[in-house]
Automatic annotation (TrEMBL):
Protein name: Glutaredoxin-dependent peroxiredoxin
Protein species of origin: Castanea mollissima
Assigned protein family: Belongs to the peroxiredoxin family. Prx5 subfamily.
Protein EC: 1.11.1.25
Domain of life the protein comes from: Eukaryota
Length: 230
């Protein structure tokens, strides 16, 4: 029940948010992706006047399962992910390529360019990539249900080099296979079905650590959290 309530807190479902002022709508989004220090401290979701949400929060309890299909000790399902190489050619890789005989960190974000993902989650792994690799990590990959064009633009925008691979799970195949989908269709922000935020450590394709967040929250899926358990 607590888990269900947290999901309902994340899923600010009222379509009337559309009619809110830009400032409020931005605040709603930023509290949803609880990044924005300034905005979320000024205006959190709970501080929004209740009259802006005349309808009760609605979400499907049947679909809002908190646990993923995958858990520690499981072998990762295989899936194909795509990216643009430095020469601009579209390439594909597989979960198996990324993890076989390797120590790999895979982390996922609800969306490229969204506040927490851009300001904290990805930059944290870029910053700590040397430390993580010094601890024996071979692969650090960021996965998002975005297409490869968007992932390339995000990589360029954040000036990421080869510290972290930015991989597109555009059709959501891997995300679905591990049961980490996050259905944001109720949100006016237009994200559709994305991935919950997580960071996992896999050794030879077997999950050793799984830090799976409730939706877009960012509490224990950062680079520091993985560094601690290496
Ligand atoms: C996502 O949620 C919407 C309702 O908000 C529902 O219509 C849709 O079927 C859901 N999609 C998936 C893939 O669960």
């Amino acid at each position: 029940m607590a888990a269900t309530l947290s999901i309902s807190r994340l899923l600010l479902s009222s379509p009337t948010s559309l009619s809110l002022s830009t400032a409020t709508a931005t605040a709603t989004t930023s509290s949803f992706f609880p990044a924005a220090k300034s905005l979320s401290s000024k205006l959190s979701f709970t501080s929004l006047p209740i009259k802006h949400h005349p309808k009760p929060l609605k979400f499907s309890t049947a679909k809002s399962t908190i646990s993923a299909t995958i858990s520690v000790g499981d072998k990762l399902p295989d899936a194909t992910l795509s990216y643009f190489d430095p020469s601009g050619e579209l390439q594909t890789t597989t979960i198996s390529d990324l993890t076989k005989n390797k120590k790999a960190i895979l982390f996922a974000v609800p969306g490229a360019f969204t506040p927490t993902c851009s300001q904290k989650h990805l930059p944290g792994f870029v910053e700590k990539s040397k430390d993580l690799k010094a601890k024996g990590v071979d692969t650090i990959a960021c996965i998002s249900v975005n297409d490869a064009f968007v992932m390339r633009a995000w990589k360029e925008n954040l000036k990421v080099n080869d510290e972290v691979l930015l991989l597109s799970d555009g059709n959501g195949d891997f995300t679905r296979a591990i049961g980490a989908e996050l259905n944001l269709s109720d949100q006016p922000v237009g994200l559709g079905v994305r991935s919950r935020r997580y960071a996992l450590l896999a050794e030879d394709g077997v999950v050793k650590v799984l830090n799976l967040e409730e939706g877009g929250a960012f509490t224990f899926s950062g680079a520091e959290d993985i560094l601690k358990v290496l």
